[in-house]
Amino acid sequence: MKQQALNRSVNRPSADKKLLLIFLLALSALILYMFVNVRFDNPKLFRYSMKIRSPKLAAMVVTAVAMGAASIVFQSIINNRIVTPCLLGMNSLYTLIHTAVYFFFGAGNIIVSNSNLFFAVDLVVMGITATFIYGYLFKKTKYNVLYVILVGTVLTSFFSSIQNTLVRVMDPNSYDSLLNSLIASFSNINTEIIIFSVMVLTALAFILRKELALLDVIGLGKEQAINLGIDYDRCIKRLLIGVTVCIAVATAMVGPISFIGLIIANLTRQLLKTYRHRQLILGSAMFGIIVLVGGQLIVEQVFTYSVPIGVIISTAGGVYFLYLLLANRRV
């Protein structure tokens, strides 16, 4: 026990130093995005650049925090590092919601024209659906997390099938407009949506503060957590619903980004090599800022908006996922 305590005390400063390094990299990415190719000699152009870039930067930070925290918590619940919260079907549900709105109401309806209303519809439908399905199924499956993941995979296929059916018969003009909302993008971000998202995430963190504080113990496994006096099933249920709400917020804000959670969560675990979830969540959120801000910087400055950031992250995430599979296979 003394040796373990000594090892922990030795490893902790190392993790803290690495966390500081990630913070500096994230801060550098933020500064680069805000000031690269900005006309400092022209006050009007400078103010215009700040006005355009600030909402995008805020949206990327909020998305990184939501996806980073959700991914670390989800992997700890499942006890598997190659899983991603997208297995819960939120991306497919988001796609289905938007397709249904365009199909039944057209591209010029009030929901599409009002970004605040559309965001509220996304968040409410996704939140209620996730709370009902996963709360109900979690109880019905006797709190078996693997069954919940299986159901999430089935729901992903179910939502995608309905969405594909609607796309085949919908108006071509509506379909053209629909495609823009189904690709992850940080262009034309509504500031009010950012504020509302921050309020939702803050309230969620406050509601789940006790469960989040128990993640270090929950990570030891179900039997050990129960022996230490934790209501394991209740904690897992609340955390799982919290994960789905975080994914709903991030997806409703910028669109589906499939592999971002997988990338930032595993990079954080590989670098920090710690069991402390407070450090892991902070590190994952900052890694998310590096990936999203760096990717958006490449999109704007290198590809001049010709390639969406979602395409870059999905491509890199697919390659990284294959690497993780091969690496675990060797082990």
Automatic annotation (TrEMBL):
<keyword id="KW-0813">Transport</keyword>
<keyword id="KW-0472">Membrane</keyword>
<feature type="transmembrane region" description="Helical">
    <location>
        <begin position="82"/>
        <end position="105"/>
    </location>
</feature>
<feature type="transmembrane region" description="Helical">
    <location>
        <begin position="143"/>
        <end position="162"/>
    </location>
</feature>
<feature type="transmembrane region" description="Helical">
    <location>
        <begin position="117"/>
        <end position="137"/>
    </location>
</feature>
<dbReference type="GO" id="GO:0005886">
    <property type="term" value="C:plasma membrane"/>
</dbReference>
<dbReference type="InterPro" id="IPR000522">
    <property type="entry name" value="ABC_transptr_permease_BtuC"/>
</dbReference>
<feature type="transmembrane region" description="Helical">
    <location>
        <begin position="305"/>
        <end position="326"/>
    </location>
</feature>
<dbReference type="GO" id="GO:0022857">
    <property type="term" value="F:transmembrane transporter activity"/>
</dbReference>
<dbReference type="InterPro" id="IPR037294">
    <property type="entry name" value="ABC_BtuC-like"/>
</dbReference>
<keyword id="KW-1133">Transmembrane helix</keyword>
<keyword id="KW-1003">Cell membrane</keyword>
<keyword id="KW-0812">Transmembrane</keyword>
<protein>
    <submittedName>
        <fullName>CRISPR-associated protein Cas5</fullName>
    </submittedName>
</protein>
<feature type="transmembrane region" description="Helical">
    <location>
        <begin position="57"/>
        <end position="76"/>
    </location>
</feature>
<feature type="transmembrane region" description="Helical">
    <location>
        <begin position="239"/>
        <end position="268"/>
    </location>
</feature>
<comment type="similarity">
    <text>Belongs to the binding-protein-dependent transport system permease family. FecCD subfamily.</text>
</comment>
<dbReference type="GO" id="GO:0033214">
    <property type="term" value="P:siderophore-iron import into cell"/>
</dbReference>
<feature type="transmembrane region" description="Helical">
    <location>
        <begin position="280"/>
        <end position="299"/>
    </location>
</feature>
<feature type="transmembrane region" description="Helical">
    <location>
        <begin position="182"/>
        <end position="208"/>
    </location>
</feature>
<feature type="transmembrane region" description="Helical">
    <location>
        <begin position="19"/>
        <end position="36"/>
    </location>
</feature>
<dbReference type="Pfam" id="PF01032">
    <property type="entry name" value="FecCD"/>
</dbReference>
